[in-house]
Amino acid sequence: MRDVITIPDALLDVIARAIRQHVQSYFTALAARLDALEKSAAREPVVNVTSFPVKDHSEAIESLRRGHEEHGRQIAEDRREFDRLSLSVQASCATLAERLDALGSAVARDTVATMPPPHVTDHSDAIEILRHAQDEHARQINDERRDLDRLQHGIESIREQIKTLEGRETPVPKDGEPGRDAFELDVLPFIDFARDYPRGTLAQHQGGLWRAHANTHGAHGWACVVDGIASTKVTMDSERSFTVHIERSGGAHETATFALPVMIYRGVFVAGETYKAGDVVTWAGSLWHCNATTDTKPDAGGDAWTLAAKRGRDGKDARMSIVGAAA
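User: That's the sequence. What structure does it adopt?
Assistant: Structure tokens below.
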């Protein structure tokens, strides 16, 4: 027989009551902290921004509202997790109390009860995680409250500015000085770059109209407002080709080349030579006009040549007579 260990019933009762009180006090404090967090979230100030629509802050207010709803859902989940852990701990405490009661009864009967050691699930890690989550939620709520305060302060500032603007008197517009008719404008006949002109001066220069956009100094300060033609030059490049060169008043240059199909007599047609539009040749006693660049014969058919003057009939031989001769 093994030695019987005697434990007084009073001591067992004290141990059981201490364990119950410790567990109950811990979960009571945790429940109080959750209730305080829920009440704090419920007391969050709601800023009425519908009476004064501010477009720039509507998205921020909606984001804060969604954050509050998300925090409320997380708090509800934490509450359910707390209830589940509380029930588990209470069940473990009840099992421990039953085993302590059984152990006390066995000791009272001077018997050794062989029973497995009580197993109590350790929820300290889960409770610590919940505590950190609650602290984090509290910090987020404080941050959002400060953001709401700043937003409300900004809205109040805008309202004050609007009241200030509404209280000001609207200035009455005054008529400006009457303008001048276009025919009353003074336009100088030319620009003397050796002198300076004031801003707004109008003058003719190189076939165009120039205006001084600032106080001038030489050529500086002038701008061409009506671009005319300063000069025109025509150059003959070949028998039919000409080039026209135009210089604008503002300094721009334009060049165009064109050709005129004037008639030029090239003599008798020569086989193998290229003729251009406007060339005129003699062929088979007739005069032919070239309509397009070609090297074909005039009477070869097609549209390259046009008969300009047809050959006439040969004349009769003349009778020769000697003046003064006997009949």
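The chain has three domains: 9-166, 191-259, 264-309.
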